[in-house]
Amino acid sequence: MGGLSRRAYILNKIQQEEPGAKLVLDAGAMLFAQPVLAPSLVTARTVQAGGIIEAMAEMGYDAFGLAPQDLVAGIPFLLQQPEDLQLPWLSMNLVQPDSEQPLFAPYIIKNAGDLSIGILGLTGRSQDVSGQQDHSGHRFLPWEKTLGDTLARIRDQTDMVILLSSLPEQTNREIAQRFDDIHLLIQSGQSAAHKTPQLFGNTLITQIGSRGKHIGRLDIDWKPSRTWKQSAQSGIKPIKDRLDRINWQIGRLIKRYGSDPGEQNAQYQQLLEEKNRLTAELAEIEARRQGEEEQLATYRSSYISLPVSLPEDQEVREIIHRTKLAVNKINRSTLGDLQQRRSQVNQQAFSNLAGWQVCQSCHKPQTEFWQQTAHAKAWQTLVRENQQFNPECLICHVTLPTYDQDSVIDQNLLAGLKEEYKTIGCEACHGPARDHSLQPDRFRPAQPDEQTCLMCHTPERDDNFIYSEKLNKIRCPAAGH
Ligand code: HEC
Ligand code: HEC
Ligand code: HEC
Ligand code: HEC
Questions:
Q1: Is 334 within 8 Å of 254 (Cβ atoms)?
Q2: Ligand 3 proximity of 387 Cβ (cutoff 6 Å)
Q3: Does residue 196 have a pLDDT over 80?
Q4: Is there an atom of ligand 3 within 6 Å of 461 CB?
Q5: CB of 475 sitting under 6 A from ligand 4
Q6: Are 197 and 299 in contact (CB under 8 A)?
Q7: How far is the CA of 443 from the centre of ligand 1 (A)?
Q8: Element at 160 (helix H, strand E)
Q9: Cβ 224 vs Cβ 295: under 8 Å
Q10: Residue 369: is it exposed, middle or buried by C-beta count within 10 angstroms (0-12/13-18/19+)?
Q11: Beta carbons within 8 Å of 139's beta carbon, 6+ residues apart
């Protein structure tokens, strides 16, 4: 959620500073991280999703795709948002079970400058969605059943058509190949990675990395031909490639003979002939295109990342803050309940830990050094952010014995966390060392390596992790004895 206020800041800036008509779109998969949630998490996450909606409404989006991930809290949750928080959700294939009437607007037509732009939404069908949750209030129609008709309805009223789709990548490509008059397809929820715009037929497909950590920006110079220059030029590329190859071969022959191999060399003659033929062909096509060129649409794409160093939009920041407080309150009470039930399990999981206070007695210099590092303050950071009851954050901001997947997945295990494990203590890096504390000569704790750090310094949390550099900042001093 933290990135939203920075997103708002950037969007504001773009809106204010630069000329040209703008559309602000999101293809969906913003509200929840996955299509199905553990029941114990649903309440808190729904409150969080409410905060995201409020923040997005504040940002003035023109259209929103709905992905299966957005439906975790049910359709009524979306439909019953207060008037001023009704985001322009689009989905042509999310329908009422009986009447097959769309539950949301299938499309919207927006004016951008003197262009009329049709924006359509397709919701990806996900097997998981109908699983744990009760989603009886809706059905998905296959895209084949709706897309053609909807397109036909808006074709004559629009200059450009954009599809927001959370269908799988392969399906999106199929759609692109089939419908030349979808000019831009923005994909969501298919992977964490960006997909640089790529043309399939006359459709540009793109995706911005998952859940709003970046903004994708497309500057488009649209033309009445409704054809991308890159798509019109695709015929030229094979000829150019072939010419490159021939030039290379000719160069190689000249090098081998030390000079022009002359008329005697049949291979050389053949290459020259083909080169002349292709050059003429290319010149002809390009001359023909010259007039056309100006009629073709072009784009420039870029990604804007949202580092913590960016300023934040104050209003959105306020919304996020309020939401975090509410979420934390819910988590606190959920965890409080669990705490009692789980205390038994907890004892076991942490039974091999000593806690940093114990190490202190024998390793004073290292402890004093560690206390100056960010790790010693990691718990304080969560408290400052009001996130100290959020299991999602705890896993990396506390002393977790072994990063064993089971206990991480069962995040509720952290409910009964003892005071001495609240922060990234010695044993997060050196491993459980209770045995060592009791019998230092018999048991030796581990020394961390890069792998140890990467458990928490994941690309998502720290996209600038260079082991050698960061190691220098936190390596404990050698024992001086
Ligand atoms: C009772 C004293 C004592 C306590 C308590 C203690 N240690 Fe040690 N530790 C030692 C001694 C002694 C050595 C060996 C020093 C040496 O050989 O140079 C050692 C060595 C180490 C080493 C270096 C291991 C190596 O292979 O070089 C690490 C790391 C370490 N301790 C971490 C910890 C941690 C973490 C704690 C707390 C959980 C802890 N120690 C608690 C006495 C203690
Ligand atoms: C248990 C999770 C965890 C492990 C393991 C871990 N870190 Fe960290 N690290 C964090 C967290 C969380 C912070 C931010 C703490 C804060 O400021 O609240 C952090 C902060 C830092 C910082 C200061 C901020 C920065 O990026 O400059 C450095 C340096 C660092 N870690 C290096 C390392 C290295 C090197 C290792 C491995 C030897 C390591 N960390 C292992 C979680 C971890
Ligand atoms: C996968 C591990 C991981 C998880 C989960 C995680 N963090 Fe962190 N966090 C880190 C690391 C690593 C850093 C240090 C990054 C750096 O500075 O390079 C960090 C740094 C931070 C900082 C910046 C500290 C400062 O004062 O500069 C804040 C704030 C923070 N985390 C809050 C949270 C919150 C809130 C959550 C839960 C929503 C969370 N983190 C979940 C690993 C994690
Ligand atoms: C973020 C990871 C991290 C944390 C947390 C951490 N250490 Fe270390 N520690 C290291 C690294 C890295 C080294 C150096 C290992 C090497 O040189 O191979 C080290 C080395 C040591 C050594 C061996 C020093 C020597 O003689 O070479 C001791 C003892 C030690 N740490 C104790 C502690 C104690 C006690 C704490 C908690 C108060 C602690 N460490 C917290 C990463 C950590």
A1: no
A2: yes
A3: yes
A4: yes
A5: yes
A6: yes
A7: 9
A8: strand 160-165
A9: yes
A10: middle
A11: 94, 95, 96, 97, 100
Whether 143 is in the pocket of ligand 4, judged by its Cβ within 6 Å, is no
DSSP-based three-state secondary structure for 444: coil
Please give the pLDDT value at position 408: 44
pTM: 0.56
In contact, 379 and 422? CB cutoff 8 Å: yes
Amino acid letter, residue 241: D
Identify the helix (H) or strand (E) that includes residue 117.
strand 115-122
Q: Which residues of 262-280 are buried (b: 16+ CB within 10 A; e: fewer)?
A: eeeeeebeebbeebeeeee
Q: Is the Cβ atom of 378 under 6 angstroms away from ligand 2?
A: yes
DSSP 8-state code for residue 199: E
Asked if the model's pLDDT at residue 448 lies above 70, the reply is: yes
272-282 residue pLDDT tens: 999 999 999 88
What is the DSSP-derived secondary structure letter of residue 103? S
Q: What is the CATH number of domain 344-474?
A: 1.10.1130.10
- In this structure, which residue's CA is closest to atom 36 in ligand 2? 453
374 close to ligand 4 (CB < 6 Angstrom): no
Which two three-digit tokens encode residue 466? 């260079």
Considering only the C-alpha atoms of the chain, give the largest distance between any 2 of them, rounded to a whole number of Å: 93
CATH 3.40.50.300 fits 3-228+297-312, yes or no: no
Please work out whether the CB of residue 474 comes within 6 Å of at least one atom of ligand 4: yes
* Residue closest by Cα to atom 37 of ligand 2: 453
Q: Which residues touch 103 (CB under 8 Å, ≥6 apart)? A: 75, 79, 91, 94, 95, 96, 137, 138
286 backbone dihedrals φ, ψ, rounded to 5°: -65, -35
Residue 370 alpha carbon to ligand 4 centre in Å: 8
Q: Is the CB of 433 under 6 A from ligand 4?
A: no
Q: Would you call 338 helix, strand, or coil by DSSP?
A: helix
Q: Using CA atoms, how far apart are residues 158 and 115, in angstroms rounded to an integer?
A: 8
pLDDT at position 412 is 52
Contact 123, 102 (CB under 8 A): no
Indicate the DSSP class of residue 265: -
Ligand in closest contact with the CA of 370: 4
Protein residue with least CA distance to atom 19, ligand 1: 440
Atom of ligand 4 nearest to the CA of 447: 15
What was the pLDDT predicted at 253? 86
